[in-house]
Amino acid sequence: MRYIRKGPAPACLDVYRRTPGADWLSVTGADKAELRRQLNEEQAGLCAYCTRRVTDGIDATGKPHAKIEHWDARSSGADPFHWPNLLLVCRGDLDRGQTCDAAPGDAVLTVHPARDEDLDDRVRYLGDGTIEIDAVRGGRRVRNGHQRDVDTLNLNWHTLRRNRRAVADAVVAAAQGADPTRLRSLLDAWSGAPMPEYAGVARYLLRRALSKRVARGKRRRVAADG
Ligand SMILES: [Zn+2]
Q1: pLDDT tier at 191, thresholds 50, 70, 90
Q2: 206: CA distance to ligand 1 center in Å?
């Protein structure tokens, strides 16, 4: 999971909102395709939850490749046309694992990828590819405080962990002995659009490596000055 910066709402949403009797099922055809296109662009081509590749296209069976998710469920009575509430998510069929849209849990999520601006600083990846998301409660950080969200979305399904670990191994190898300039260019490569799958793992490791290298450089300079 990573922070998603939402852009302006597509104009059609307001038209639906002002149309008497219109509900989410009224949104079809070109309007729905345009919503998918804009969501996909905002999310740099990654599922809002597991960060696998998604597209705004249609697959061979005629189904959309990814689904539009209402973070606040439509059954909650929330405005179905509220743009910040809409996310593009994968269908969640992955080696018989049920993640994201297909995840069986019905718990209400508390972490919001398009609202929690500090999300990227609260996501942590362990050596085996496990994801943890810290919560902030009462102004204090709670390690792995969003475990329930991770479980609900099945984000530590073994295939996802294995895929994240493969990215981590590749990044660690590439960052071995790299100077800060090289680390920054690696970070840029993992930040473009479309963003590589599981880019959050790579960005997490590269940011950590960069801050360590910079701190080490400062210590060396202080020692030299002293
Ligand atoms: Zn997903």
Answers
A1: very high
A2: 23
